[in-house]
Design a protein that fits this description.
Blueprint lengths: L5 H6 L2 H6 L2 H22 L78 E5 L17 E14 L2 E15 L5 E3 L4 E5 L8 E4 L6 H13 L4 H12 L5 H26 L4 E11 L2 E9 L4 E6 L3 H7 L6 E4 L11 E3 L1 H11 L5 H23 L5 H19 L5 H12 L1 H4 L1 H4 L8 H17 L5 H19 L4 H12 L12
Parallel strand pairs: 1-3, 7-10, 10-11
Antiparallel strand pairs: 2-3, 3-4, 5-6, 7-8, 8-9
Helix pairs in contact: 4-6, 4-16, 5-6, 6-15, 6-16, 8-9, 8-11, 9-10, 10-11, 15-16
This protein binds zinc ion.
């Protein structure tokens, strides 16, 4: 006997079972049992018991490696019922056992010093300009070097990219008044992380120049390369041997330098008229988190946190315009909101594949109504849209009212979802300029979703903020048609002097 198909199932109902004699009923039941076992087994497949990759594991599953037959909290789609306990610790799919060690070099292991033989291309002198005590201009003739350090910097010319090594000399000058004044490397923002041995401080006295720092962070954040791969690339392609620790510091430094830029972007987005919002799961050292994006035509802001409304309010504090979003509860108190219709259409498509004939028929009608609405809006921007859409909207409401009590749960849920959020679903009828899908936000999250699958998220709060800040600045630069890397390099150079950079220009 072949496996039961959808068509076979559609023919079965209680009346059919009643009509069967005992022997046949047992046959049919065991046939159904086989199907059930088969489906359950397939449902429970994950990276630990099949050849499926870890990226295909359900992020909402708490313990993918453990007994999967335990109760799983599944993603309750689109509604007020989203109740995933966000603070709960989940085990990362690739981690077999909780490792007790800290990341990085272990205490007592052999250290690595600088292995490069430094050949200096240029000596860059730094003199104090005026006496710190009496403010008289100082003459460089009496200057003496008191400290210095080497830097590597990327030099990009047409059809050429190379690393140059500079030696920075800092001079001290004794004034006529007897006071000695020293030129000192600039310093900026300090990022604190609890329990870290050495704080991350923006300073000019580091080995990697602003452009090379930007290049390294681009390889990591934009091109999704691991620290180890970046080390390999720099070594083979540029002849530059630097440690994984230095590479990590560069990426963090670039992100920290972008913090003030993100503050500016948050201020700017309050004045926008239309924003898209979406969120995707994220991990921060095994903790379940969310990566949010708030994006307008000219500005994109990413942040990592819980899924609480309060976190979102920190970014859209004074926002008064329209929001395009999915049906998640955190958005529901906004009156000026358009629901993403593509989400609803995808759910309606799923219902059209139902076994139940009645649900299938209603699903098709629902899908039709939604599609016709979109067509009507896109075709007739000028003519009175309300008149054209009126009957379509009534039709949609009717179908939902019939569907909300249907025995097929998917149809029932979707109908109720549409009715519960009715104003946001049809907001576009009275405001024809509103987009009908949340594609902008979803597209803006794609890059990070792929990165999550490769890296399994970030490790610290600082790492999360760094990653989100870099994404925000890069994406905003692209929206504003600016070169993100020149801007970030400039931001790092200024940040190392403690200066806040100018806002990202709009061209
Ligand atoms: Zn003086």
């Amino acid at each position: 006997m072949g496996r039961l198909t959808k068509k076979d199932l559609a023919q079965m109902n209680e009346a059919y079972f009643e009509s069967l004699d005992h022997e046949r009923l047992v046959k049919v039941a065991s046939n159904l049992l086989n199907l059930g076992i088969n489906l359950i087994e397939r449902l429970e497949q994950n990276s630990s018991n099949s050849s499926k990759p870890p990226s295909s594991d359900n992020p909402f599953d708490k313990a993918t490696n453990k007994d999967t037959s335990k109760e799983k909290p599944s993603k309750k789609e689109e509604g007020n019922t989203k109740s995933v306990s966000e603070e709960e610790k989940i085990e990362l799919p690739q981690v077999k056992e909780e490792s007790k060690g800290t990341p990085g070099r272990q205490v007592g292991s052999k250290g690595f010093g600088r292995t490069l033989i430094l050949e200096c291309d240029e000596i860059v002198p730094h003199y104090p300009s005026n006496c710190n005590a009496c403010d008289v201009e100082l003459s460089q003739t009496r200057a003496s070097v008191y400290t210095g350090y080497y830097t590597y910097e990327l030099e990009i010319r047409e059809l050429e990219i190379r690393v140059v090594c500079n030696l920075h000399h800092y001079y001290a000058i004794v004034c006529d008044c007897g006071h000695e004044t020293r030129a000192v490397p600039g310093t900026g923002y300090v990022s604190y992380v609890e329990g870290r041995k050495k704080e991350l401080k923006l300073t000019e006295a580091v080995m990697v120049g602003p452009l090379l720092t930007t290049f390294i962070s681009a390889l990591s954040v934009r091109y999704r390369m691991s620290r180890v791969k970046i080390k390999e690339l720099l070594s083979y392609w540029l002849g530059l041997d630097i440690s994984v620790g230095t590479i990590d510091r560069c990426i963090r430094e670039a992100g920290v330098a972008c913090f003030p830029v993100v503050e500016q972007l948050i201020e700017e987005i309050q004045k926008e008229e239309l924003i898209h919002i979406d969120e995707t799961p994220w991990y921060e050292k095994g903790m379940f988190r969310w990566l949010w994006v708030v994006i307008s035509k000219m500005t994109a802001i990413y942040f990592i946190g819980t899924r609480k409304k309060e976190e979102l309010l920190l970014v859209i504090t004074a926002y008064m315009g329209w929001i395009v979003s999915d049906g998640y509860g955190a958005y529901r108190h906004y009156e000026k909101r358009q629901r993403c219709l593509a989400h609803l259409i995808r759910k309606a498509v799923a219902i059209t594949g139902a076994v139940d004939e009645e649900a299938k028929k209603l699903g098709n009608e629902l899908l039709d109504a939604l599609r016709q609405l979109i067509k009507a809006i896109s075709e007739e921007k000028e003519v009175d849209v309300r008149k054209r859409c009126g009957p379509l909207i009534d039709k949609l409401e009717n179908i939902c009212n019939i569907g909300k009590d249907n025995r097929y749960s998917k149809l029932r849920d979707l109908s109720r979802e549409i009715l519960n959020d009715w104003d946001a679903v049809v907001a576009f009828v009275n405001n024809t300029e509103l987009p009908l899908t949340n594609n902008e936000a979803e597209r803006a999250l794609r890059h990070a979703v792929i990165a999550r699958r490769i890296s399994f998220g970030t490790r610290t709060n600082e790492g999360s903020r760094v990653y989100a800040s870099l994404l925000s600045v890069i994406e905003t630069c692209l929206l504003r048609k600016q070169n993100p890397w020149t801007y970030i390099a400039k931001t790092i150079a200024l940040g190392r002097k403690g200066i806040t950079p100018a806002a990202i220009p709009v061209s």
